[in-house]
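Handoff note, outgoing to incoming analyst
You'll be picking up this chain. Sequence as last confirmed:
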Amino acid sequence: MAATKIGDIRAKTPDELNTMLLDLRKEQFNLRFQRATGQLEALSRIKQVRRDIARVKTIIGERAQSAAPKA
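Most recent structure output, in case you need it:
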């Protein structure tokens, strides 16, 4: 599975972003668990998921910052 493109993430609504973030964190937990038990074959997927989480959190932060009142 390829990394999520930033354009695809930007097109999502805030609710979709929060759902996506939750799903990615669950996947990250499962991947870490598989690695610890020796069942993980695609080690590169851990890196992809971590970066996708960062992308989603960046977009959420950008939107929160732009929505905040200017001081």
